[in-house]
Amino acid sequence: MSHETVGSLLAVIANSLNDGLRIMMFADKRAWGPDEFEQLRLLEETLDEAKKDFQELPALVNGRFYYENDRIEESLEDLRILCTRFELHAQNFKDWVRGGAAPPIDEAWAGETVALRRELHRAQCKAARRIHAAQQVDNLSGSSPRCLGALQVYRAQHQQRGQADPRKKEDAERLACAQAGRFERFGERDVAFVCDFCDGFLIWDDLRAMPTTRIRMYQPQQQQPPLPTHNNNNNGGGEPAAATSARDGGSSGSGDNPNDPSTSNWQARGITMTSSEAKTVVFAPVAIANHLAPEPGEWRSRVLCPYCDEYYYEEQGDDEMERIRYVQDGNGSDGIRSFQEHLEWSHTSMVPSMSTPSCRVM
User: Fold this and answer.
1) Cα distance between residue 35 and residue 28, in whole Å
2) The predicted structure's pLDDT at residue 321
3) pTM of the model
4) How far apart are CA 328 and CA 226, in angstroms?
5) What does the pLDDT look like over 5-22, one tens digit per residue?
6) What phi, psi does 181 have (nearest 5°)?
7) How far is CA 176 from CA 48, 99, 231, 308, in A?
8) Could you check whether the bond before residue 104 is cis, i.e. omega within 30 degrees of 0?
């Protein structure tokens, strides 16, 4: 129907949820057990999460007007299916109460509520991603083609650039990743991240659990000879050359210089599933923040290199040297393995510390 929009279909789903929740709240609870109260709790959480998504996602696509009035057919079809499923789900509770609401309640309904909550969240995220993609085309934007979910992690990383405590920085990155998608076991050996916004998969091969921290890096400090009392070749400013280098972005031993793509810290320490040996992997937020939505018919996401994005080189211009931004292949790497190979070849110049970080599924 031509009058349907993302907002109108979400309203139908909200009404179904409210109906089911109202029926359960006003039912006779004197004979209820833990299963019945758990079902009531799940319905409340599902409605709360749907409201939260409806309030937060429009901000990612320039406002509520664009989100509520969107008519992209793929989004409408996803929501139509969910409208029917939520209506049938609410009908289960109506029939149960009409029959006397006698315990026990059907245990399968709780699992169905959880599944519907997850699918509704993903449907709203994908609707926002399609709006964002359409806006980029309409505006002829030259900005990065990252998935909308990737952009949320990417922005969180940039907001944490001045954070001195690496643990707080990594906590913020993990939180952004959890809001963009989920980790799950892929086959018997691998770990995958599935993006809620684009359904793209990022797969880490042969990994027992996803590391939650970067490898702490350090750069060997070189012994400097004593500075002379008088130096006539110190750029004429009374400041030693070594001090000038350090001030302008030389190594401070922190192991992460955002101004130099060759010294960026992207590594994490994992454990292989097959042999229980330590291995170096790409820290998950680095890949998640730079993935692209899969091409039509594909399911794996490609990955852009964030450090190449920030790399500049100089060329001789007409009158002086010109600073030019490096342009990488717009398609990026075809997966985590090739992305890591690129990083190892182009952006590894520091020595990992001997401490091994904790490792668990994010």
Assistant:
1) 14
2) 54
3) 0.78
4) 43
5) 999 999 999 999 999 999
6) 180, -155
7) 19, 45, 51, 22
8) yes
